[in-house]
Amino acid sequence: MTQLYDREREMKLYVAEERKEEKMNTKVDDIKNLMKNLKLSAKEAMNALGISPQDQKTYLPMLKKG
Q1: 3-state secondary structure string across the chain
Q2: What predicted TM-score, i.e. pTM, was given to this entire model?
Q3: What are phi and psi of 26, to 5 degrees?
Q4: Are 24 and 62 in contact (CB under 8 A)?
Q5: Among 31, 46, 55, 64, fewest CB within 10 Å belongs to which?
Q6: Would you call 19 exposed, middle or buried from its count of C-beta atoms within 10 A (0-12, 13-18, 19+)?
Q7: What pLDDT, in 10s, does the model give residues 17-53?
């Protein structure tokens, strides 16, 4: 029973992490689209999307990757 509970918990954590990563990738795409289409800087685009300054620190390296 404990193994089943542990596997279920691990699966839920995995799915939650995948969803978080997918949301972040979507947000990176949104930032890039604003930068390209509206000719905004990365900071301006993130501000337009309402991304907090703390979260902006997370997204900046992701924008530089590709």
Answers
A1: CHHHHHHHHHHHHHHHHHHHHHHHHHHHHHHHHHHHHHCCCHHHHHHHCCCCHHHHHHHHHHHHHC
A2: 0.82
A3: -65, -40
A4: yes
A5: 64
A6: exposed
A7: 999 999 999 999 999 999 999 999 999 999 999 999 9
Q: Whole-angstrom Cα distance, residue 9 to residue 27? A: 27
The letter for the amino acid at 51 is I
Distance CA 35, CA 51 (A): 14
What's the pLDDT at 42?
A: 97
The number of angstroms, rounded, from the C-alpha of 49 to the middle of its chain's C-alpha atoms is 12
Q: Which domain holds residue 14?
A: 2-65
Dihedral sign, Cα of residue 36, residue 47, residue 59, residue 23: negative
